[in-house]
Amino acid sequence: MSEPKSVAIIGAGIFGLSLAAALRDRGAENGSRLIDDFKDHKVTVFERYDYDQNSYDANDDEIQAASVDHNKIFRASYGKEIHYQRLAMEGRKFWISEDEKRGCSQEGSDSEEKRIFVNSGMLRVQPSDHLEALERETLANMERDGFRDAQFVKSNAEDQQRADRLGWKDKLLDFTIPDSSPVTSYEAVLDSLAGFVRCSNACAHYQKVAASQGVQFRFGQELGAVDSLVKESSTTEPEKAKVIGLKTKDGVIHKADVVVVAAGSLSTQILPDLSYHLESSAGSLAIFKINQNDKELWDKYSPEKFPVLTWKSTPRDPTGKDTGSIYVLPRTPEGLLKIGYRGLKFTNFKPAPGGTPFTQDGQWSVPLPPKECHSLQEQAEYAIRQFVSIFLPEFRNVPFYSAKLCWYTDSLDNSFVIDYVPEYAEKSVFVCTGGSGHGAKFLPILGKVSQ
Ligand SMILES: Cc1cc2nc3c(=O)[nH]c(=O)nc-3n(C[C@H](O)[C@H](O)[C@H](O)COP(=O)(O)OP(=O)(O)OC[C@H]3O[C@@H](n4cnc5c(N)ncnc54)[C@H](O)[C@@H]3O)c2cc1C
């Protein structure tokens, strides 16, 4: 029998957790290279935050990780990218079964705090009064896989009747296009397969699942934070270095047969080779708080009554400013109504270390420190305010309860970056990152398909 090998994963966010759990999941099917290579071996996750103590607390301002958040959208609508549609639908089955194992059946209340996947539906509001090309592609691919009946186009009488029959009609909301003459409203498609995942809760749950499967976790700024990779010359591939482990901030070296970089928007800083493929950029989040005593608003924006609402990119407004690519999620159990703007993403360029393979005039974008991530750029605030005035009129003059910059790990084509790194010998480095603003929904499935 061969000696068990060891895998060290840097980062306990969505990507690191998903992979860790899959590597120790005895029921996982073979087929993924990493799982075939390392199944049943020792897996240790290194994480700089004390998630074991704070349970991925989304209200903790000191934590900066895309996965630590109240909620993220679950959707299978991906235009032409049918592989993501299929992956999302595969993931959906796992979310539902994981919730069922925890006593939340699909028939139960959406407001059940324990529930991780909330099937609130998602209304894809178009930029105008007709369907855009991307939407038509999505509908065609939904049709192709047999999900067209779960999509309801607002202007389509047959879809409206079906929505009514299936109990979705009240979420097929109507919004007037400002200054339209004659008065018209935005076209929209309600997707009854979609909704959101309670992201921090999902991470806390999967961390426990992974730990129960034997994954070791090292948390904290000293024991868990990784300072550097430890390298030596390879005997079999002398022109390359081989990574033999990692050094944590406390100075301890941890040997491993393969090191996995799953450090989200900090991945390039651990492995600058990734600078060709990844860039850190900030999305803008603005939050209103609804008081539970305000019964009307509390009900109106609950997941039972209000879908996730996305507004696609729009033509620039008359002053030339970008106002589209915004979304809002139903209020959380504590009353937080989160709006996200991704029309413009923001970078923070700083000098890159010498030897970084790809820079822009010697610079690269790195996340701002958490304490500098609580105010929005003027363009983002302007766009969010336009959105609010159309879609959330009760909040038109209400100040934000809080605001946040949340850091994306963007890849060149928004696809995930999951593979061995060929610059290193003997398959000693694997990378699992590049969430590009859509990775959270895949937590249950990412690690299983990492190949
Ligand atoms: C604004 C925004 C909105 C999004 N919306 C959606 C959405 O609606 N739906 C969706 O599916 N996805 C969404 N995403 C994407 C999703 O959140 C990400 O794809 C996913 O959370 C990324 O997970 P990750 O594990 O790669 O990174 P992270 O969550 O950043 O986790 C990386 C972990 O690595 C740790 N780490 C970093 N450096 C070190 C080190 N040196 N030592 C030890 N630990 C380290 C960090 O502390 C962190 O915990 C969104 C992302 C953003 C930014």
Commentary on this structure:
The protein is of the alpha+beta class and 451 residues long. The protein has 2 domains: 6-72 and 199-278 and 413-449, 3-Layer(bba) Sandwich (FAD/NAD(P)-binding domain); 119-195 and 279-411, 2-Layer Sandwich (D-Amino Acid Oxidase, Chain A, domain 2). Helix content is 24%, strand content 25%. It contains 11 helices and 22 strands. Strand 21 (417-420) and strand 22 (429-433) form a beta hairpin. The chain is globular. It starts with 5 loop residues before the first strand and ends with a helix. Flavin-adenine dinucleotide binds at residues 10-16, 46-49, 65-67, 72-73, 224-226, 262-266, 270, 283, 340, 406-409, 433, 435, 437-441.
Figure out the total of helices.
11
Report the sheet with the most strands, covering strand number, pairing sense and barrel closure: 8 strands, mixed
Categorize the overall geometry.
Answer: globular
**Rg, alpha carbons:** 22 Å
Portion in helices: 10-25%
The termini sit apart by: 25 Å
Look at the structure and name the CATH superfamily of the largest domain.
D-Amino Acid Oxidase, subunit A, domain 2
Number of strands: 22
Q: Which kinds of small molecule does this entry bind, naming each only once?
A: flavin-adenine dinucleotide
Strand order of the largest sheet: 6-7-5-15-16-17-14-20
In CATH's first tier, which class of the largest domain applies? Answer: Alpha Beta
Strand portion: 15-25%
Domain unit count: 2
Mean pLDDT: 94
Q: What is the name of the CATH topology of the largest domain?
A: D-Amino Acid Oxidase, Chain A, domain 2
